[in-house]
Design a protein that fits this description.
The protein is about 20% helix and about 30% strand. It has about 350 residues and is an alpha+beta fold. The two termini are about 45 Å apart. It comes from Strix occidentalis caurina (northern spotted owl).
């Protein structure tokens, strides 16, 4: 019985793949016909008839061939591309918002059905602020189901799972914000500027800001992350990298901010908390990340010097980004050489 079900599934998959291939052929013919028509129009040789393809017809026909997954705005972008530049190179996957670069030669070993990339939905979120501002950090907080963002000019914002603003504040600091994270035990947002650490108690109903400024910091801070191993309900550990190659460890508790005593504070309280630092690099520390599965943290820099006092490996011209894959148990790095290890 199970073998019969497996065969039915295989047959269905084969039929679906065949139908999709046929749909792609029809779509390619539609594109070719549209390009030919536009070419004749530019040369003044086209005579209008019932088979004329305008945008509405192109959109309707495309969605008939490829299904409702194809969004109107993506079809519009594709149509503009082929009509504005008749010699433009196009790939069918662009209609699904998936682009193949010139250097991304597709391996012949890949099955054709694995080349399809569907985008279920995308959403653009706008937030009132300075037009010259840019987002410097985005952190997802899964257990609370919201997202924290920080902008370069000091706007901290919390979005819910519908990407609606739950809370926002503006840090009154002349220095730019360089990164942010969430403190799971204190339930606050932490952000770093070039010279200070900002802790924002977004839950407070008193002042609009409720920000605690930890300063001064000796060097310019470039990145920040939270250590998630702490089981202390009122303590969080913060890791920060600076522009002199140091990684700092800062431990904050509710006693530092008086979070238990009061929920109404004056704006932007300045406090001093000692930190521990260690020089791990000879250049800017561009990222620091705690890896809970390994019970350690990683940091990367644009330098290529190995410090023997720590576990490290060198990459020519440095590493600008890295990530840990829990399933594969590997660390992936990327640098100026476009090398992925």
């Amino acid at each position: 019985m199970s073998e019969k079900k497996d065969c039915d599934k295989e047959n269905c998959s084969a039929l679906e793949l065949l139908d999709f291939r046929n749909a792609l052929k029809q779509f390619q013919k539609l594109v070719e016909k549209t390009v030919i028509q536009k070419t004749k129009e530019r040369l003044g040789l086209y005579i209008k008839d019932d088979d004329e393809i305008d945008y509405d017809k192109f959109c309707t026909t495309t969605q008939t061939f490829l299904g409702p997954e194809v969004k109107d705005h993506n079809v519009k972008a594709f149509y503009r591309k082929i009509t504005n530049n008749l010699d433009a190179r196009t790939e069918w996957c662009e209609i699904f918002v998936y682009f193949i670069g010139e250097s991304d030669a597709m391996s012949s070993q890949l099955k054709e059905e694995n080349m399809v990339f569907l985008v279920s939905e995308k959403q653009q979120v706008t937030h009132a602020g300075d037009r010259q501002d840019v987002i410097k950090g985005i952190v997802k907080v899964p257990h609370l189901d919201f997202t924290v963002t920080s902008s370069q000019k000091g706007v901290l914002t919390i979005f819910n799972n519908q990407m609606r603003v739950l809370a926002t504040t503006s840090v009154e600091d002349t220095a730019w914000i360089t990164g942010c994270d969430f403190l799971p035990q204190l339930k606050c947002v932490v952000a770093v500027t070039e010279r200070t650490v900002v802790v924002w108690d977004y839950k407070s109903k008193g002042s609009q800001n409720n920000c605690f400024i930890i300063k001064p910091m000796e060097n310019g801070l470039l990145c920040v992350c939270t250590v998630t191993m702490s089981d202390h309900l009122a303590k969080d550990d913060i890791l920060m990298g600076d522009d002199k190659g140091y990684v700092h460890l800062l431990t904050v508790t509710s006693d530092h901010f008086g979070l238990k005593q009061s929920k109404v504070y004056p704006n932007n309280i300045s406090i001093f908390i000692p930190s521990v630092k260690r020089k791990l690099h000879d250049d800017w520390v561009v990222k620091v990340k705690y890896i809970s599965d390994l019970n350690c943290f990683g940091s990367c820099s644009s330098d290529s010097i190995v410090h023997l006092t720590v576990k490290a490996f060198a990459v020519p011209r440095g590493v600008s980004a890295f990530a840990y894959c829990r399933k594969a148990k590997v660390i992936v790095t990327g640098g100026k050489y476009w090398i992925i290890l």
